[in-house]
Amino acid sequence: MRALLAALLLLCLTAPLPAPARARAAAAARKKDASFPSEVQRALNALVRAELAKGSYAGLSVGVLHGGMRWVQGYGMRDLTQQLPATPRTTYRMASITKSFTAVAVMQLVQEGKLELDTDARTWVPQYPEKPWKFTVRQLLGHLGGVPHYDGPEAAENTQPLDTAAALALFASKPLAAEPGTKFVYTTWGYNLLGAAVEKASGQGYGRYLKSHVFGPAGMRHAALDDQRTRDKQHAVGYRHFRGQLVPSHFLDVSSRFAGGGTRASVEDLLAFGQAILQHKLVPAETARMMQASLSTREGQLTDYGLGFATYPLRGHYMVAHAGGQPETTSLLVMLPAEDVVIAIASNLEGEAKRQRRISTRIIETLLEEGLVRRDAHLVDPVDAVVHEGLARLFTYGLSYHLWATRGPGALPEPGDLSEAFTRMSALLDRATIAQDPEAALRRVRDAHQPREGSLLIRVGAHMALTLEKTLGPEKLREYPKRGALAFFTDYLAACEQVPCPAPLRFSEALQKDARHFGEVWQRAQVAELRRVRLDEVKDPEALWPALELATANTALHPDYVDEMLRIAGLLGKRGRKEEQLRWLERTVALHPQSAPAREALAKVQAPGTQSPQAVPAATAPLRTTDGSSPVPDDAGLLPASRPAPQPSQERAADQGG
Description:
Low-confidence stretches: 1-31, 611-656
Strand content: 5-15%
Number of strands: 15
Number of helices: 26
Radius of gyration: 24 Å
Shape: globular
Distance between the termini: 40 Å
Structural class: alpha+beta
Largest sheet: 8 strands, mixed
Mean pLDDT: 88
């Protein structure tokens, strides 16, 4: 019966919205706080239930706002022992999303002239000892101040209520982790310094300031500091995974991380906060632009983090987000300023970051991309991989920044000499040059959006988006997140025939040929039955394997199914169906020979306990900015002693929590 129900729900998820539903959605958008059309509500509910059906969970609350329409829903139990359901009203620990609240408070005080962004932060927190280098409020907001993060379990496991002075004393004697401005060092302790600065500048306690200047004006009726003594009956009991079971979370008093991870709220509160940010109720548009723009290191490398928010392009959308994870909770807030979308997700189960990201991705696909599943491309040839990644990055940086600047509060870098920029882009994706050293070429492509490289990808891609908008119209531009990078590029070439574009702005003939070839191969490699559903969401994926194998046979470019196939194999393994698990892992490697995760998973099953194979060279790694992952901090606050320290390239994607 449960399987039948899941199948019926999946039908709601995978079916495209009919034209009347889209018309009703447009009409509803003109009403304040209107409900989504019933078809959309069923699709949203189905996608959440489909994700929850894949593994155990406790309680989960989800909320979505889009253009004045609203949907909120609770799933599972906020208290497993008492069998109390999770609802939109349920409050959860917000963990690191607290940093976004703190950042708003700081920027309000900056607007009032009570704080300054670019002066020594110790001006407002004189009790913090002087260090070898000074750091500013702006650097603290962007995790560029060098203040360290938790450096071991004992630093993160406080169980006693602490005031501001005691919370600062926990790390006051610790040295800076890096020279300010040189390195992104995600830090909850740095945000505690900002909380102390808010108290000094405002003359109010941190919690009182939030209540009167952030929570109140935003309409966050149930948000507060997470004081164990004042929790109401709607607050969720926290759980964690332990030996295949859900058990109560370890006790943690979060007053020790008050401004970096010490609040609680409901998803309704989070939606209200996100809406207030997008509507500039808490800070004006000019300030919102500053908060949503990525900072960069002294060497001109973007951090994908602004002032209190992670901020980055994803498949042509400009994402402004934050996540949180600590004992008792996992939380996620996602905003798309250009599309007027807010997504809020909170759970009372630890370690749910990947599941919440998948849910948020499916929500975006449902609301903005007609439910089409967006997959990365898998390419076998290393030269093809570099060229294709360059086209993908032109699309995602160009479209997202253009939309953020024209539909949101954002701003673009100066266009500069566009002819020279387009010529450089063609040279960067020249096959002969790439073939000499594909790995070095890939690094150059992946650096081409950086300020130190003149923001090349952003400038060129944004001009392409502007040309498409002028030629095809504003609404046509909204189609590219679902149509993808190759359609964006080839449509630009067609638009250049109409405008017409100067010769240097048409790219090289070789690059034009590559893009058209990729587009033709990509279309042939699609499986119709998988356009609106993931393989691991299908009731009988085995029945679809022949079609998938046929579509991807003898092609060097096809959709990447690694994650979906690994999830199928993982579920089979949990059910004790080892032979089927092994078969799916072998298929995954055969279909994606360059995939390190696929080969590692197969090796673990074939020879448990043996060392994983060597990682795939960088030239064949997938494009991080389009694969659904993000630099949003999401890890739990308690650090197991056996966990290795994050490598520099992982720091933005794997913070140690709020």
